[in-house]
Amino acid sequence: MKTSDLEQRFARVLRKPDARLDRATRQRIALRLGIGSERPRLPRFLALAAAIMVLSLLLLLVLVGPALLPTGGGLR
Amino acid sequence: MTTAQAPGDEVAFDVGSGDALQTLYSDHAAMVFGYLVRRTGSRDAAEDLTSEVFLRAILAFRRFEWRGVPMERWLIRIADHAATDWYRRGARRPMISLDTPGLTLGDEGVEDQWERETVADQLYAALNDLSPARRQVVILRLGESLPFAAVARRLGRHEGATRMLYQRALHDLRERLTP
Q: Which of A63, B7, B93, B146 is 20–30 Å from B118 (CA)?
């Protein structure tokens, strides 16, 4: 048997168009593993952007916050 | 804390944390499932075995058995062992049942399918007789149509060694299939 014939025979059997992991199967296996519904992971740059935004807001509040207090409303 | 990071993986994860299994699963489930469908010829079996593979992997991590091999190679190895056990348990690939509604003995489609299944069984039997490394190369190369460089990367081998392994696998298969 030629090598190419052999390769073709195995390729015909092994190439499975249904070998793709669809969402439903992925979820069923995840449930079996006890990891519930799989959380999509937040891309790193989005997580970093969110963290920077929160820190900026906090900083703004610390710097500008006292100036926004009503006059005489602060501690004497 | 023990962390694991394979070449090419985006992040290292704490294997003792609850998220370790989820991270491992998210990153590699499709690859493991695809390998197992090709290895067993059955989506149902692949579904069962995929969960088994990830449980085995996480248990091995917790027992500190991970030895720094590339993650994909390690998972394929576990998947291959799980499939070998599946074959040993006698869980054969599903055959066509003559009781299937709508099928009759005189139906040419049934005969064609029966012949195809018989040939497939012979090829799977030959594949099962190969060494795990040779079998993995054949499945990745012919099943997933991956170029040798990609097969080598996935198995953590050099490309030249992978080509040689493949040629030896074909030689073994030819011997097994020649009457």
A: B146
